[in-house]
Amino acid sequence: MSDNAPPDPVLAGFRKSIDNIDAALIHMLAERFRITQAVGEYKARATLPPADPSREQAQIARLRNLAEESELDPEFSEKFLRFIIDEVIRHHERAAGR
Fold it and tell me: Which superkingdom heads the taxonomic lineage of this protein's source (predicted)?
């Protein structure tokens, strides 16, 4: 496809949907991190540890099951969730002054 070719309306429709989903993901992640920030502040005040390995494992198992039900690669979903969990723990450690 050359630079002068008219835009493909089917491709443009797909891309618009992808752009909308990406925007929703960013908004959901922002909200999730606002909530986990509050959790981190609470844990710091209550002198609770930043990480909760049993909760993390339960969440990973739950989301792997959801991924399988949704026909999404559970390995990918676990990597994605692990990335988020690691970032949350980093924020909680910072809130605890570690």
Answer: Bacteria
Question: 22-25, long-range: CB within 8 Å, 24+ apart, which pairs?
Answer: none
Whole-prediction pTM: 0.80
Is residue 35, in this structure, part of any structural domain at all?
yes
Segment 28-68, tens digit of pLDDT: 999 999 999 999 999 999 999 999 999 999 999 999 999 99
